[in-house]
Amino acid sequence: MSEANRPEIPIKVNSRRSLGTGNIIHPVELDSSPITTQHRTQTPSPFREIKHFKKWVPWLIPSFVVADTVLFVITMYVNNCPINTVSCVATFLGRFSFQPFKENPLLGPSSSTLEKMGALDVSKVVDDHQGWRLITCIWLHGGLFHLLANMLSLLVIGIRLEQEFGFVRIGLLYVISGFGGSLLSALFLQSSISVGASGAVFGLLGGMLSELITNWTIYANKMAALLTLVIIIVINLAVGILPHVDNFAHLGGFSSGFLLGFVFLMRPQFGWVSQRYTSYYSRVGPRPKYKTYQLVLWLLSLILLVAGMIAGLVSLLRGVNLNDYCSWCHYMSCVPTSRWSCDTNPVSCLSEQTGNQYTLTCSNSGKNETYLLNNPNSSQIRGLCSQLCR
């Protein structure tokens, strides 16, 4: 047969997606069924072009970043350091200047301002029935460094997930994980306030891990992807043993996100998707949409998540402190060393006034210092006490 008259056989490939890499080509079986056209008879490929999963345009995650940034600016405006504190950092910013480093090393507002804006305070949740603080605290940040670190992580992790799964599922995963992080934090850290989106961001990391597990069959380079993700998670959790970092929020958010990933991020198996676009699979019989192990993980995760959330809420509202049942668990959030202390007990001072001289004595350590002040308000006294006792 001459080259010009040789029948044309179109070649198509079936592709599977990989984590952070290009598509990998997989072989397909040939179907010898002839198709007659007006001009020639040819042996076609068994597959038409297989459509990829829908890609979404991310807008919700960038909106979260904008909302958190705007709230931080509003918090700094309410803080008004020059009026409420004797000394401030970056005074050229006016009322947006930061609290002293000794009081807040993250370049941010005072703890009293954060509490006013909706920080997680267990006593107010339990005694004053302000349960909304379990949600509002994930939109606040303790300082500029805190905000930048969380927002950068949110953009890197969240945009990819929103592109793959859409704003509804990722939005729910983010908020519910943040709530789970706040809940676990409230059960362990009851003597200090807590703020930050870290729990919600760790929820996205947990969702990425469970998504990789439940959709294992559609990934190429599975072990490399799993190892990379586990290393990232371990490093971020290790940072949580430093002081001023709420690792219980990280652990609670990660656990919630991990379970939610099995519920929200489950993909149909590849054979079922191929069956919708090809005639080959329709002849070999229908394929189930999900594999059995996916459905089992979905059910178990949903049960564990709902049961855990209910048990945690009931325990919190009853005033349970989980440290009473786990004497070593506090080391998961902070490991004391010779370089730093993990003491988070609230500070208080005794004040003595002689003219415009104020002598403050820290109730915890007995340390005292005298300040020259002209008609200081209560916020300034609290700020000086915090600096003295820390």
Topology, element by element:
Blueprint (H helix, E strand, L loop, with lengths): L13 E3 L7 E3 L8 E2 L4 E2 L17 H20 L1 H4 L26 H7 L4 H6 L5 H4 L7 H22 L1 H22 L9 H17 L7 H18 L7 H18 L5 H8 L2 H5 L7 H26 L31 E6 L2 E6 L5 E5 L5 H12 L1
Antiparallel strand pairs: 1-2, 3-4, 5-6, 6-7
Helix pairs in contact: 1-6, 6-7, 6-8, 7-8, 7-10, 7-13, 8-9, 8-10, 10-13
Function: Serine protease involved in intramembrane proteolysis.
Membrane topology: Multi-pass membrane protein
GO biological process, one term: proteolysis
Describe this structure in words.
Belongs to the peptidase S54 family. This is RHOMBOID-like protein. The protein starts with 13 loop residues before the first strand and ends with a helix. It is built from 14 helices and seven strands. Strand 6 and strand 7 form a beta hairpin. Helix content is about 50%, strand content about 5%. Strands 5-6-7 form a three-stranded antiparallel sheet. A two-stranded antiparallel ribbon has the order 1-2. With about 400 residues, it is mostly helical.
The helix-strand sequence is EEEEHHHHHHHHHHHHHEEEH
Q: What class do helices, strands and sheet pairing give?
A: mainly alpha
Report, as a whole number of angstroms, the end-to-end distance. Answer: 90 Å
**Alpha-carbon Rg, integer:** 28 Å
Question: What percentage of residues falls in helices of 4 or more residues?
Answer: 40-55%
**How many extended strands?**
7
Number of helices in the DSSP assignment: 14
Strand order of the largest sheet: 5-6-7
